[in-house]
Amino acid sequence: MGKIMMLVGRTGCGKTTLSQALMNAKLSYHKTQMIETVENIIDTPGEYIENRNYYRALIVTSAECDLIGLVQDCTDQTSLFPAQFASAFAKPVIGIVSKVDRCEQQEKLTRAEQFLREAGAEQIFHVSSYESQGLEKIKDLLATNT
Ligand SMILES: Nc1nc2c(ncn2[C@@H]2O[C@H](COP(=O)(O)OP(=O)(O)O)[C@@H](O)[C@H]2O)c(=O)[nH]1
Ligand SMILES: [Mg+2]
């Protein structure tokens, strides 16, 4: 079965591509185990974080997931996540730095991590859906039962 993760982040940060990359990676990795082939990802609209009026919708939707992934594009110079946004959820919150294939300078990574830590993310992951980087670690997290 595995865990259900809800992805939250502004439009264009890479949520849908990541969902698909996780599914594809899982499919190829576990191609002989037909039962566990589909990852459980809730891909939320960017509007939910871009407009404060939708925060409630995010919180309501989070009831259906086991953990929340805040997605921050490493090329994005700004963040939409309020300080300690994670505390609004009654679920564990991880931070996902996306598009690390475009992170030529270390500063971009550090900046994205800082935004996610300020938002209250416990653990930070680095991914590139284009280069299938960092996907295994997230799949492992979703596969664990505790
Ligand atoms: N360089 C790079 N671009 C990406 C990556 N993931 C997504 N993108 C691009 O970023 C844009 C927005 O991606 P999308 O998944 O639709 O973002 P969403 O709005 O958060 O669902 C698209 O043009 C994607 O091709 C990645 O890992 N690396
Ligand atoms: Mg999308």
Largest sheet: 5 strands, parallel
CATH topology: Rossmann fold
User: Within the largest sheet, what's the order of strands?
Assistant: 2-1-3-4-5
Distance, first to last CA: 12 Å
Helix content: 25-40%
Q: Give the name of the CATH superfamily.
A: P-loop containing nucleotide triphosphate hydrolases
Radius of gyration: 14 Å
Low-pLDDT segments = 30-38
Number of domains: 1
What is the H-and-E element order? Answer: EHEHHEEHEH
Described by the principal axes of the CA atoms, the overall outline is globular
SS content category: alpha/beta
SS element count, helices:
5
CATH class (first level) name: Alpha Beta
Top keywords for this entry?
146 residues; binds magnesium ion; EutP_PduV; alpha/beta; ATP binding
